[in-house]
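Model it.
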Amino acid sequence: MKCFIFFTLLLVFLSSCGPAASQSISSTQASTYIENKGSDTIVNLALAWAERYQSEHPEVSISVTGGGSGTGIAALLNGTVDIANASRQIKPEEMQEAQSKGINPVEYIIARDAIAVIVNPENPVKELTLQQLSDIYSGKINNWRGVGGEDRPIVRLSRETNSGTHVYFLETVLRLGEKNSKTLFSTDTLLLPSSEGIINEVRQNPNAIGYDGLGYVPKDLKMIAIARQPSDSYVLPSIATVNDNSYPIARDLYMYTAGKPNGAVAAYLDWIMHSDEAQAIVAELGFVPIK
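Modeled.
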């Protein structure tokens, strides 16, 4: 009988503890979580934004990962992220897939960027036209002597195909903005998974040529001045030359949401695009502010 009374009291005690434990878990989960994924070009900027925003809004937790623009947009369409980062606009086929799933992607321009063409400091070449760049990357020019350099083979470096930077460079440089062009990267182009990979290879190889977002280019590498036509001025990438449209390889950077956001996601995007604080971080990291 004593054992039965003890067991009954124990059950009452445990059942009374249940709601309290549940309340504790609920309060832990009260912090808002934002999943942000995509472009490797944007990832360092997105990380800096997330760190600053979280320091001022401790109730919000922001996860930032890279993987490429295509990866971020695919995650958005699969419903696994709140914000997708992209260094290119969403493709028509991606938009079609989104709409087939009942998703209406909303686009935000969050910064601008210059694509810098980089070589090893030992390379004497300082200037190239867009046509010369196209001929180099498509395999028509295979020796640096063909563009005024030394008698050395050209080693072509590019981002992988899921990169928005790769897509932009293909369309703007290799195809010179011609929508009907079928020009492709030379088959011996080395496809590297990250901006850092391109930087490291150019640093080690005096024959290499690569391209990267301006914010990623270290001071020990050499940037090539680019001209649209041989008769035009050759221009180096910078915030000033992007803003005055004189540098020919510049683009917008994007964030996408699955429909119009609300709550914490809307507040975060508003801070990114409209606060002086967020746009100052853009300039600090070598990108071009939209304000």
